[in-house]
Amino acid sequence: MSEDTLRSVEIERISVGRYVVRNARGGEMSMGTGEDATFTPVELLLAALGGCTAVDVDLVTSRRAEPTRFAVTVSGDKIRDPEAGNRMQNLTVTFAVTFPSGADGDRAREALPRSLRQSHDRLCTVSRTVELGTPVTMVDAGDPGPAEPR
């Protein structure tokens, strides 16, 4: 991997079931098990699915007209399957976008279906990765143990 392609986040344990996620640009967010208001990993997956397409669609349509409403709902069913393992099914990204009347709004409305298709078919890295599937490697970096006295 090169600097141009590598993406990463760091997750630090705060306490049992509570974590802070940091990106390379200094952004932070809380993550947890759902016992409080923090986002769970599954909710973050849903947010990533919707957010990725939202960015694509927004960049295309807002060049034509500023939306009067731009809301995205992402849902799915969490399946607990003892044989195949836990996973999400029935993932759906629903856009509720409206534009002002007039020629600019008409152009934005016309661009919306095309931008949704383009995002789904080739642009959104998150949904493309989920749909195509990609191997995930788990690595134990090991516990070096206590430092040896010198």
Structural overview:
- There is one protein chain.
- The chain is α+β, with helices and mostly antiparallel strands.
- It has helices at 41-61, 103-123, 125-132, and strands at residues 9-15, 18-23, 28-32, 69-79, 87-98.
- It has a three-stranded antiparallel beta sheet, with no helix packed on it.
- The longest helix is centred in the middle third of the chain and has 21 residues, at 41-61.
- It is elongated.
- The mean pLDDT is 94.
Gyration radius (Cα, Å) is: 20 Å
Overall morphology: elongated
Indicate the structural class.
alpha+beta
The biggest sheet, with number of strands, parallel, antiparallel or mixed sense and barrel status, is: 3 strands, antiparallel
Percent of residues in helices: 25-40%
Distance between the termini: 37 Å
Got a strand count?
5
- Widest β-sheet, arrangement of strands: 1-2-3
Summed over residues and divided by their number, the pLDDT gives a mean of: 94
Strand content: 25-35%
The stretches of 5 or more residues where confidence is low (pLDDT under 50) are none
The total count of helices amounts to 3
Could you provide a short overview of the structure?
With 150 residues, the protein is α+β, with helices and mostly antiparallel strands. It contains three helices and five strands.
